[in-house]
Amino acid sequence: VHKLQLLMVDLGIQKLQGMLNQFLSREEHELFRYDAEKAARINFYPYDTPDVRYFKHALNVVLPGARREALVGLAFKTAFVSEEAAHRSLYCSAQDLRAMRAAGHEIGSHTHTHALLSSLSEREQRHELVHSKRVLDAFVGDPVASLSYPKGMEGGFTEETMRLAGEAGYRYAVTAVRGVNEGPVSPLHINRLDTNDIASVL
């Protein structure tokens, strides 16, 4: 997923789409053909324009995971000479994370591969949640307590996901559901406001 993020930032969506098109089969081209009616029904990526939302949904949700990884890998090799250098520019080291933690920042999990958790089996979800936490715990030197669900709108995670998150040792988890938290709420289902929402209120 970080390869994809780096490609989107470095190339821009339009150029990335053009690059991926050369690797798509005829059937896959149909998956990515923009449909305004379908785009209007996608509740993930609420701050993107409809065409970008449709592209991201087709790539991250509709396209099978193994094929997505292969396509992104091909695009990454085309765009960047050195994968190792790209990773060094993108990732924090364990030392970076410990320094951030020591400075008062919270380090939390976003799962291992940023998969849509609601589409995974119980075993697969557990791996995403547990493996990420184990890696971060080791890097930081202390247990991480927080989780942010990938694509965390309603439908991106389930009651089972929340149960598994608690069993994995997370004390609280934030969603991407826009809103305040009133009354008793589950610490594993915390709504929040985007900075865009806050700016519109002020």
Description:
A three-stranded parallel beta sheet has the order 1-2-3, covered by helices on one side. The model has no long low-confidence stretch (mean pLDDT 89). The chain has helices at residues 2-11, 13-21, 26-32, 36-40, 50-62, 65-79, 83-90, 94-102, 122-140, 159-168, 195-201, and strands spanning 146-148, 172-178, 190-192. By secondary structure, it is mostly helical. It is globular and about 45 Å long. Helix 10 (159-168) links the parallel strand 1 (146-148) and strand 2.
Task: Give the topology.
Elements: H1 2-11, H2 13-21, H3 26-32, H4 36-40, H5 50-62, H6 65-79, H7 83-90, H8 94-102, H9 122-140, E1 146-148, H10 159-168, E2 172-178, E3 190-192, H11 195-201
Parallel strand pairs: 1-2, 2-3
**General shape:** globular
Q: Largest beta sheet, briefly?
A: 3 strands, parallel
Q: Assign the structural class, choosing from mainly alpha, mainly beta, alpha/beta, alpha+beta, or little secondary structure.
A: mainly alpha
Low-confidence stretches: none
Report strand order across the widest sheet.
Answer: 1-2-3
Mean pLDDT: 89
Give the N-to-C terminal Cα separation. Answer: 33 Å
Radius of gyration: 18 Å
- Level of helix content? 55-70%
- Provide a count of the helices: 11
Strand content: 5-15%
Number of strands: 3
